[in-house]
Amino acid sequence: MSDIVELQNLRMYYYVRQGLFKTVPVKAVDGVTVGIPRGEILALVGESGCGKTSLGRTTLRLLEPIGGKLLFNGRDITHDKLADLKWLRKEAQIIFQDPYSSINPFMNIHQILEEPLIVHKIEDAEKRTEMIHRALKEVRLTPVEEIIRKFPHMLSGGQRQRVTFARA
């Protein structure tokens, strides 16, 4: 089975100010090589601050790598312009452990789930609603008619996590 995502010696550093004029690199991702086979799920585990989120964000090109290669379906996307990666946003998602960091607390669940569908130009409102209802049922968030009217703070942590699964 071929790898859908392949990282080859991927590196991403943050630069922090040290003193008045000097900046120094902080290695967040340093030399990571891994392949993710099609149909597999990868979970990153590690201590706080070890680079899990930075690796995930760099893999999806939400952060710019400073070195190495990032391949998606065999295509090197390491240096693609962000505007040219819109297709990637449809194909790959990242789900963070804390759903509050990725869902808008001022939107109800229907709006949260509808937002990416609008961004990806699914223009028929009835079709979007049908997709939202199906996704909520798949992650066992029912009754759907009640859930879609709620706001994130009205759900348990596990329910919020399932909202992020439904959105992905």
Task: Give the SSE layout.
Elements: E1 3-18, E2 22-37, H1 52-59, E3 67-72, E4 75-76, H2 86-91, H3 109-119, H4 125-138, H5 144-147, H6 157-167
Antiparallel strand pairs: 1-2, 1-3, 3-4
Helix pairs in contact: 3-6, 4-6
Folded structure, characterized:
The chain is built from six helices and four strands; from the N terminus they run ββαββααααα. It has helices at residues 52-59, 86-91, 109-119, 125-138, 144-147, 157-167, and strands spanning 3-18, 22-37, 67-72, 75-76. It has a four-stranded antiparallel β-sheet with strand order 2-1-3-4. A hairpin with a 2-residue loop joins β3 and β4 (75-76). The model has no long low-confidence stretch (mean pLDDT 89).
Q: How many runs of DSSP E, i.e. beta strands?
A: 4
- Helix content bin: 25-40%
Please compute the radius of gyration using only Cα atoms. 18 Å
Q: Indicate how many domains the architecture comprises.
A: 2
The CATH topology of the largest domain comes to: Rossmann fold
Low-confidence stretches: none
Estimated share of beta-strand residues: 15-25%
- Identify the CATH class of the largest domain: Alpha Beta
Order of secondary-structure elements = EEHEEHHHHH
- What strand line-up does the widest sheet have? 2-1-3-4
Structural class determined from secondary elements: alpha+beta
Offer a quick outline of the entry.
The chain is α+β, with helices and mostly antiparallel strands. Helices cover 32% and strands 24% of the residues. The chain folds into 2 domains: 3-94, P-loop containing nucleotide triphosphate hydrolases (Rossmann fold, 3-Layer(aba) Sandwich); 100-167, no CATH class.
